[in-house]
């Protein structure tokens, strides 16, 4: 903090005057600040000045006799590598070698990284050849560090290096792990198996072979979980080794990370059959994955599995299982688990009851939620901050808010950000907006996470109809240097939906740096642009979207579908939809989906626009989309509605009519749309006759 305000040189002087000893930890912290400032500056002179300060600190450390270890030189070398300052890197590297000769092997890692980053292939080959010919004691330590750097880049030189080095002599497990992950990425089966066989016969490495097998298969590209498991098993069989509890655990975690919970449970059974014990860590990973994948119903299978394998759950496991039961509305099972915990002499916790309480609130059942509070009192379980935040947040009256807040105050619990956010949300929902703002002034300044609290205030104001106040608060917080949560910006975009707000919405969108939140915000602003007929803005946003998710065709298609669905809801936007169709084809170089064309054709039915329906009909062929029964029906209806009965009969003659439901729709369409066309024709004739009558009277 002191260095951020005073600067590094002044901080050292202050430490000296105060008698504060400047140790390695302090020097490293000061150097980290210099490097951070250098990275954050776009001004080359400022960056060089910060690097000079870091070097001065380094010299000061040497003068005071401190040994220069990797914690000190590592971040500095990484910065020099990132900005490709080759001469400075070598100068600094020589000083480190002179000061700490034992660091030579580790410096090899950074040197190889430098040549990889600057693409100096000749230098890379020199280092590889140096190790191949080197017979010193540090040969394999140096080789291991070179390999680590090459593995991070997955360069072809890695293969050459592996062919000139004896993998059995590499002592670093981290290095061996990196080698096998790189071999997996490159799908080098033959080389991987060769190395695994060598390590299997090495007395110090044999026990780790099963881990290396996992490292290899887990990083192979374009494999689904089932294929990874199959490869894992086949390699163990081929090498005649058995998986260890560690490799089984890694495989289970891999399945959980991929949200393949059922597969993870199968691996658990296989692991237990092999004689290994089920651990709390494994169960926790599976429960988390079940929650993330919404496989709540698997909680019973998980609980049964624990019983079968004699694993006693702890309080965290019970809380997670209660939460999963509640998420699938199985409150009976949640209470049964609560009773089971007590039978196992585990004291029930507030977090267990909180899981049930929030479930009832989620189900809009406040009466049962409050019953949970009484059950906590009966069980002598004190409500915690989370309990009170749930109670306050779900209050419908100011009186109830004050009641639970007073109870919270009497409890002696500390004010947390969750309490502040609950108060803000509750007051705003009750229309007490000034009181919601006062929470920030009176309580929010005392707790950590003030940015989150301010973000909730902005969101609460916006979502409760106070969009002007929300925008004002947002601008005020920005001027104070506060970086609000992306959710607050999304809330502003969501509720700023009146006409004339496009420029403000685009500015808000620029505030979003997180990819997922930006995509969400862009989608909302895009729909706004379409709704209010801002074609150029919509086109620009579509182009930005394509740049961001160009590799995800399904995501782009989903965006287009939603945009055109919004057009279908407003018949006045048909021209806008037709213009966007041309943009998709001509500017973005993409083919429209069937859904897009179906939506536009439906809009033509509503607007009775024959010309556009014919143009869209041709787009199916241009997009190589064969006509199906739905497109035939929509085109038939569009032609009937526009009064082109002759063309309608032609489409009808080509339409499959085997399905009785199709025949029924045809009959109803003839009744509805033919009548509309007849009325339209009658009205047209009436207008024509009226005009002729007026002309004849004028002549007389």
UniProtKB/TrEMBL annotation:
Keywords noted in UniProt: Repeat
Residue ranges with Basic residues bias: 687-700
Region Disordered, annotated ranges: 677-700
Ranges occupied by PPR repeats: 244-278, 349-383
Pfam families according to UniProt: PPR (PF01535), PPR_long (PF17177)
Keyword Cytoplasm appears in the UniProt entry: no
Record's keyword annotation contains DNA-binding: no
Biased composition (Basic and acidic residues): 677-686
Residues of the PROP1-like PPR domain: 246-408
NCBIfam families: PPR (TIGR00756)
Descriptive protein name: PROP1-like PPR domain-containing protein
Organism: Eucalyptus grandis
